[in-house]
Structures are given as structure tokens and as C-alpha cells.
Amino acid sequence: MATLQELWLVRHGESIGNIAATAAEVAGDEVIALDTRDADVPLSATGAQQARALAAPLYGADEVPAVAWLSPYARAQQTFALSVENGPPIARVLTDERLRDRELGILDLLTRRGVAARHPEEAARRAKLGKYYHRPPGGESWADVSLRLRSFLRDAAEVDARIGLVVAHDAVVMLLVALLTGLDETSLLRFAADHTVLNASVTRLRSDGRRWELVDFSDVRHLEQLGAEVTAHPGSPDVQPR
Fold first, then answer.
1. DSSP, res 86
2. Model-wide pTM > 0.85
3. How do the domains of the chain map onto residue ranges?
């Protein structure tokens, strides 16, 4: 049985939610104009182009991933589907709800201005508890997401594959990096403050059997080489792009 030695983490391409959130922040609106539930938010036209550009780094290598795990959310599913349109098939593709985006509860679809105006008590709680432990009512903290990702990693370790691929969301990518490389709260927040998970970026980690090493973080050279737009969209009240 092969042991997982490499994990490639891909953030979905730009979504219409990314565009709406950024537009609302720029306009100073309190609410993001988006009627679609988070799980069903699709890619934008730019996001679809970015997803197709992923074929080069994911399937142009000598060895392609033997297994892919996907978030159930539409933007991640579409990103994977478009990336493999003209690439070799991946033998095993699994959808795993533990890879879904972080849930924001009552803060969903609110901008920073909206949170301050409509839920000032939550803004105060977040300031006191910090980004890692603040859990908005009905939502999740980063610590909550980490718990479900620990469960995912235990199961992933049992899969017969040398290289695995994850297609998910920026918070998922950031927290998987933290869990695998052993970043504590302080180190993670410092790292996250200086690093952004770009749309359709590839983050690679490699294991020597004892510890995981971060090889590439948020690599978008494939987008630049193919002339696809590079996007980030930091547009939610918790500085976590949708």
C-alpha cells in the first residue's frame, strides 16, 4: 500500500460570490448582494478560465495525483471538472463535506461595515477572542474547521496513493497547511497575515514519512503563463474570501 507523500491543495477559481463581496466592500455596503446559498455559488467567467489553466500544473507532471478529494460546494466541483477537461483522468475522486468552506452563521453575507452596524457585539467578541477562536452564532471558528480537517487527514492517510489532490477553499488550504506543518495559533495568524490563498492557486506539501514540509504556497505561475487573471478577493467580515 502506497503512503501519501505529497498533498496538492487547490483553491477554487474566482466565484460570483468573490466578485459580489469585493464590490460590496468597495461600495461601503452592509450586505453582499448575492441570492445564491453559499454551497451553490458558481464560478465567474474568469474563474472558469482559471480552472482550465490548472490542467498544466496538475496533470502536466510526470506523475499525477492518484486520488482527489473535493469540497461539495459548486465552485470547487466546477474548478475540478474544468481542470480535467483535457487532462488524464484521476483514478479516484471523492467528495468530502469536511472540506466545505467555513460557515459564518449570522455574519454570512455581511461586509465589515455590516457586521459593525448590525452585530457590534460580535465585532467586540472577535476582537477579544481573536480570529482563530471566534465562533459567530450559527457558524464556525477556525478551530472548528481545524477539527473536521484533522478527521479528514486521518482518513486521507489510509488511502492507497502517493500523491493526493484537494480542491477546496482558502480557509481549508490555510488550515491544512497549519495542521500538517505544526503551526500553532500565533504562528498561523502571523503566516496568514502575510500570505494569501489566491484563486486557482496550487499549494504543495511533501512528507518524508515523519514530517510535512511546505514546498509551494499559493503558486499561480500557471495562470500567469497562460494569461489568466490572478485574483484574491479578500471580501468577508473575517477577511476570508468566499
1. T
2. yes
3. 6-225
Show the DSSP H helices in 84-169 as ranges: 112-118, 120-129, 142-156
Residue 102: strand, helix, or coil: coil
Which cell numbers hold the place of 118?
448590525
| Cα dist from 147 to 28, 144, 175, 186, 196, whole Å | 34, 5, 10, 17, 22
d(CA 182, CA 188): 9
Dist. CA 167–CA 58, nearest whole Å: 11
Which CATH architecture group holds 6-225?
Answer: 3-Layer(aba) Sandwich (3.40)
End-to-end alpha-carbon separation of the chain, Å?
37
Query: pLDDT tens for residues 12-41?
Result: 999 999 999 999 999 999 999 999 999 999
